[in-house]
Design brief:
Length: 281
């Protein structure tokens, strides 16, 4: 497995693979890898001949008061996990390699980025779209793998690829959870013991909501108020949002039908956690 931070080396390596007729799968990450990330890599390995993983904590997608500096990093442990899964190439650039002096071109999106996380993190998706666009241009994969854990991000990337005619297939992969239900996240390491217990209210609420929809609940108002009630039963939980939107447009919906995304964001102590379920009704 090769590890490099240099764009020209990535290009060189991948050019060789493509000349040999091999397909390339790509998994963009911010590192501090866990089984959520490795599930994407394993899927990429199944579907493609070669797998590239990027590890880059992208400053452009963090707001001023967010956790850019404290975001957990452990390149050595990440390398071990990638090696175990059979990743072929890790791209681990420095910020200067990605954003050279004078950088001033951005990819922005209306519509899908205005609700959910876009409301409380207004510059987030501009940073995500810009960096993913750059990574796609550098790696030029056949397929790119994203987790449903970040469902709005998945919808945004699908839309960007469609709108900008990128010749890349985006593959969404299911949420990987801890045994007790908590969605795996690099940010779970911020939680102390008490907060870790309290954080279970997210997955409990998601499972309860999913069950109600499965049993036929059609009113988003009813569903969301029951979910809010459950979240409020945990004194440490501070709700950012609880919403039902169309998975395709990320617009709020009243009646639960079609491709529905029910998503929540909740602060436990100082840690903001997200979770969701998707239902096709
Ligand atoms: P991150 O490193 O948090 O930017 O995540 C990189 C990719 O891994 C994104 O596509 C995430 O949606 C995905 N991911 C993170 N956590 C999980 C999880 N628990 N299950 C599935 N995918 C995940």
């Amino acid at each position: 497995m090769k590890v490099t931070g240099k764009i020209h080396e990535i290009r060189e390596e991948i050019k060789g693979w493509k000349k040999a007729g091999l397909t390339v799968g790509f998994v963009p990450t911010m590192g501090y890898l866990h089984e959520g990330h490795t599930s994407l890599m394993k899927e990429a390995k199944k579907q493609c001949d070669k797998v590239v993983v990027s590890i880059f904590v992208n400053p452009m997608q963090f707001g001023v008061n967010e956790d850019l500096d404290s975001y957990p990093r452990d390149l050595e442990a990440d390398k071990v996990l990638c090696e175990q899964v059979g990743v072929d190439l890790i791209f681990h650039p420095q910020v200067e390699e990605m954003y050279a002096e004078g950088f001033c071109s951005f990819v922005d999106m209306d519509g899908l980025t205005k609700e959910l996380c876009g409301k409380s993190r207004p510059i987030h998706f501009r940073g995500v779209c810009t960096v993913v666009n750059k990574l796609f241009n550098i790696v030029q994969p056949h397929k790119a793998f994203f987790g449903q854990k970040d469902a709005q991000q998945l919808a945004v990337i699908c839309r960007m690829v469609k709108d900008l005619n990128m010749d890349i297939e985006v593959i969404g992969c299911p949420i990987i959870r801890e045994e007790d239900g908590l969605a795996k996240s690099s940010r779970n390491t911020y939680l102390n013991e008490e907060e870790r217990k309290a954080a279970l209210i997210l997955s409990k609420t998601i499972f309860m909501g999913e069950e109600l929809v499965r049993k036929g609940e059609k009113s988003s108002i009813k569903l969301l108020s029951l979910m809010r009630e459950m979240l409020a039963s945990e004194p440490m939980a501070e709700i950012d949002y609880v919403e039902a939107v169309s998975m395709d447009t990320i617009e709020k919906i009243q009646i639960l039908e079609g491709n529905v995304l029910v998503a929540i964001a909740v602060k436990i102590g100082r840690t903001r956690l997200i979770d969701n379920f998707i239902a096709t009704i």
